[in-house]
Structures are given as structure tokens and as C-alpha cells.
Amino acid sequence: MSAAMPSLQDPQQNDPEFSRAHLTVARLTLTLGGLAALALAATVAGLAFGSVHISLSRALTDPSSPDHAILLGARLPRVLMGLAVGAVLAAVGAALQALVRNPLAEGGILGISGGGALGAIVALVFFSGGGEDTVVPAVAFGAALLSTVAVYRLAMTDGQLEPLTLLLVGVIFNAFWGAAIMLVNTVVNFYYTRTILFWLMGSLEAPTWREVTMVTGLGLGGFVALMSRARDLNLLALGDEAAADLGVEVNVLRRTIFLATSVMIGAAVAVSGIISFVGLIVPHILRLAFGADHRLLLPASLLAGAAFLVIADLVARAVISPAEIPVGAITALCGGPFFIYMLRREGRKPFSL
Prior knowledge:
two-stranded antiparallel sheet, 2 strands
């Protein structure tokens, strides 16, 4: 963007007063309006294109046409699920990066998504006789929350959260959850093998309207909780002690953010499996472009994450049509190199949001 835009290393960007002075209603409206237009364009593209060519005009005007059935029965719920899951993952990434003051923090990298996926898989296996629609999301949420608490506690050193330790603990938890999922895979019958592979790779294939409603509702509820603490997240960039001196109840803030993000990740993982790196790529690019004021960054991440995942899913559906690639593979192909770049970049200097 503009050459005058402050970088991640600009000390002024850590000053809440600096961020407040530069966040005008016009800037907020223009930025979010542009990102909303991007999400809308991605939605239209996701509905119009895929492994089967359809005419949107015929699908909308002729209820008896095959195009109508494809649009409403397959593509629309899938695109809406992509919007919901992408929005959730990006908003969670932005909140976690601020909370732990580490740009490498993200639900997948920290092992939270893996814990939620393990919970969802275990619940699906043991409650396959009925009640999956209610039990699987609940268990996924509980497992994601427990994973969040465990990672956070183990990363504490002398009462302080160490960013590098947090990253290493997250990597260890990812390996542990992956091993546990493979262990479950070896003891269940063949019927569950494809389902477990689905959760490991991440996919938006064949969502139901009930699942779309569940993810959207829980995602918006968690996002409201995050937005209510946006100012406190800005202050937290100054450090725990400085934030506390300015009136932030740091421990309450952490519990609120961890609870909200666990609900959001649990809901997303319960229906889409592990889709990594959305929460890493999107918030970081937006922070570089628009600054670190979370009153703007959180809703911007919500909209941009929704557009990003719908576009990634469109690529996954179209690149080897009529077959498709799991969308988690597409996001990993984008996010893996980006993560290495971030790791090397942040390793050369102290981290600052």
C-alpha cells in the first residue's frame, strides 16, 4: 500500500492512540466495503464455476432445470460453508496472534485444530448410531478448548508466555494429535477410513444446511466476543503490565479470547476438518496493508478469510475436474512456504505487532 503505511516494526503501531487517530469512519467503511465486494465476487465465482458448467440465470429462473438442483443442492451450501469456515479461521488467527504477540500463532499451527479434529472423530465413531449433529460439534469444541488450555499452560515460563516455546509446544501437540488420529484409524472399521482422511486433509465437500447454520451461528457469536475486546487487544500489544495499568484485566481477556476461539475452531473443524494456514496468511497480509488496530483487523480478517477459502475451494474443485483436491491441500501449498518465510523473517528480530 502507501509508502507511509507503518510497518510491523514501527513502534508507533504499538501505540493505541496512534491506531485510534488513524482509524476514521471513512477508512473503516472503505476498507471493509472493498473486502466485502471481494467476498461477494468470490461467492459469485464459486457458484458459477466448478466441475460441471451451469448457467446461473437458468438455475435461478427455472426450478425444474438440473442447473437449479446443482446450484441449491450442492454449490450454494458449499460456498456458504467456505465463507463461514474461512471467516472463522482468519478471525481466530488475528485474535490469537494479538493475544500471544506472535505472528506465527494460528489455530492449526498451535495444535488447537488437531485437538478439535480428534474430538470430532472420536465422537463420530462412538455416536454413529445417532445424535452426531449435536454431539460431534460439542465434543470438537471441548477438545479444542482443552488443547488451547494445555498449549497455553505448557508454554508459560515463570509466569510469562514465551512465543517461541508456544510455537514449539504447538508443533508437538500437532504431532501428538496426528498420531492419536492415526491410532483411531487403525482400530476402527473401513467405513470410517475415508471420514478420518477427510478430517486430516480438510474439505468442504457436501455440507448440509444444518451444518452451515451451526458454523455461521457459532462463528458469529465468537466473533462478537472478539470484537467486544478489540480495544483491549490493541492495548495488550504494549505488554501485559502496561495493558493492566491501562485498565485491561489481562487474565480475563485471555480466558475470553481462548473460549471464543475454541468455540469457533471447534465449530469449523467439526464440519470441515483441519484446514491450516488460513489464520496465518490472511491476518498477516492485512496487518501489513492496514495496520494492527483490531477494530479494523478483526472484521477485515473475517471478510478476507471468507473470500480466500472460497477461492481456494474453487481451485480445489476445478484444477483436476471432475475429480477434486481437498481444500486443505490447497491452503497448505500456499501456507507452507509463507510459514517458512515468516519463521525466517521473525527469527531475525524481536516480534512486535
